[in-house]
Design a protein that fits this description.
The chain is α+β, with helices and mostly antiparallel strands and 307 residues long. The chain has one domain (3-305): q2cbj1_9rhob like domain (Jelly Rolls). It has helices spanning 3-17, 31-43, 47-59, 77-90, 102-112, 130-134, 137-144, 146-156, 239-244, 299-305; strands at 92-95, 124-127, 161-171, 196-202, 213-215, 250-252, 259-262, 268-269, 278-287. It has a 6-stranded antiparallel β-sheet with strand order 1-7-4-9-3-2. A 3-stranded antiparallel β-sheet has the order 6-5-8, with no helix packed on it.
């Protein structure tokens, strides 16, 4: 590819990323530009995304940081800032289980038990229709909680956008027919958008038998330059390569009501659950720009999520 072609592609990605996040949904999705965003993330060792994020922060700066009243929010301001500190350092932060969420978690978990898998080889039952999700108070509560938005804004350095909500149940699948790659149970990084933060809520107790989330600290965008060259690629990475290059995964167990704040630019994966066990998760995703992978929700749904 000629340099002028690559320059034009970068300019178009930047133009779309700096658009009003709702107006972006009026454009036709470009899979080619999205794939170039991923390519540029790897090729520039994250610097393209960081530079673009700085431009986004100028166009859509954080709003009302000092005016936010943390009374009756899920996380007090001191805890939010502690979560941010760990996030910026390690790429992931975990909060202890929050009391009072048990019944709300149980309601969503029961709905997940009624979902069906796409095929017998996958271990995941996914709920991603917003109307179904919004029937649950726990979903509406998290989407509207300003302390979560505070963490997302300050991690992404802008007025972030909540663009995805989903929930899933991971169940046991025999090893002989298991599909680790398609079930995201091999190490990888996400790059559906320029910069993003995912918030996971465990809807049930999770220990090593329940397929805990696994991540590798110090592999997020801020640390990517220090990763071995052999791992600087867009694709699945085997456990053998992770061990070979001295990376140390961490398993995230936790009680029902445990929150995980994850920059999934970090290397991470799910893990299989053992027989007669399940894992239930609710996920929110905040982005610095709605440009990226093909949208799952409509513009009106995104507006609803960001009221």
């Amino acid at each position: 590819m000629q340099n002028d072609q690559l320059t034009n592609i970068k300019l178009e990605i930047t133009r779309r990323a700096l658009m009003d996040p709702f107006q972006y949904y009026d454009l036709e999705h470009s899979e080619e530009l999205y794939l170039f965003l991923r390519h540029l993330y790897v090729r520039t060792v994250g610097s393209f995304s960081l530079n673009l994020n700085r431009e986004i922060s100028q166009v859509r700066p954080i709003k009302n940081n000092n005016e936010l009243d943390f009374t009756n929010l899920l996380f007090p301001k001191k805890q939010c800032n502690q979560i941010l500190k760990v996030l910026r350092d390690r790429g992931y932060a975990q909060s202890p289980s929050i009391e009072g969420l048990s019944d709300e978690c149980d309601s969503l978990r029961s709905s997940l038990d009624l979902t069906h898998k796409d095929n017998s080889r996958t271990s995941r039952h996914i709920m991603c229709k917003l109307n179904d999700l919004y029937n649950h108070h726990i979903v509406r509560r998290l989407c509207r909680d300003k302390s979560i938005k505070y963490i997302a804004d300050n991690y992404l350095n802008c007025n972030s956008i909540l663009n995805l909500v989903c929930a899933w149940k991971t169940s046991f699948v025999p090893k002989a027919i298991r599909t680790l790659s398609s079930d995201a149970q091999l190490f990888h990084f996400d790059c559906d958008h320029n910069r993003f933060l995912k918030i996971f809520l465990y809807l049930d107790d999770v220990d090593r038998s329940h397929g805990p989330h696994v991540y590798i600290p110090y592999t997020s965008i801020n640390h990517r330059y220090s990763m071995p060259n052999e791992l600087q690629k867009d694709g699945r990475i085997s456990n053998i390569d992770v061990i070979k290059y001295g990376l140390v995964p961490e398993f995230i167990s936790g009680k029902k009501g445990t929150f995980i704040f994850g920059d999934t630019h970090s290397l991470h994966k799910g893990t299989p659950v053992t027989k007669n066990s399940n894992r239930y998760v609710l996920q929110l995703q905040y982005v610095d720009s709605t440009f990226g992978a093909k949208p799952i929700f409509s513009k009106d749904q995104i507006k609803l999520l960001n009221q």
